[in-house]
């Protein structure tokens, strides 16, 4: 039985696009599979969130200054 609860667009072009989208299932989102294992993604993100903080904690003030100076030179050089 047709779905009559959904209101169709009045514009002929929008109606045509809607009908074609219904026929080829374009409007229905499919499962997003990027080939990555969800547990591995979560574990990598967990480590990534810790990485910057851990690296900054082990650097000396002089090392941080050198890194910042190098970044500033790279940013402003053309």
What does this structure look like?
With 78 residues, the protein is mainly alpha-helical. The chain has a domain of 43 residues. Helices cover 63% and strands 0% of the residues. The protein has 3 helices and no strands. The chain is elongated, with a radius of gyration of 26 Å. The mean pLDDT is 83.
Short characterization:
The protein has 78 residues and is an all-alpha fold. The protein has 3 helices and no strands. The chain has a domain of 43 residues.
What is the strand and helix layout of this fold?
Blueprint: H1 12-23, H2 38-58, H3 61-76
The average pLDDT score comes to 83
Series of secondary-structure elements, N-terminal to C-terminal: HHH
Number of E strands: 0
Q: Give the C-alpha Rg.
A: 26 Å
- Helical residue percent band: 55-70%
Number of helices: 3
Strand portion, in percent? under 5%
Instruction: Quickly give the structural class.
Output: mainly alpha
- Uncertain spans: none
Q: How does the overall form come out from the CA principal axes? A: elongated
Major sheet description: none
Oligomeric grouping of the chains: single chain
The span between the termini is 65 Å
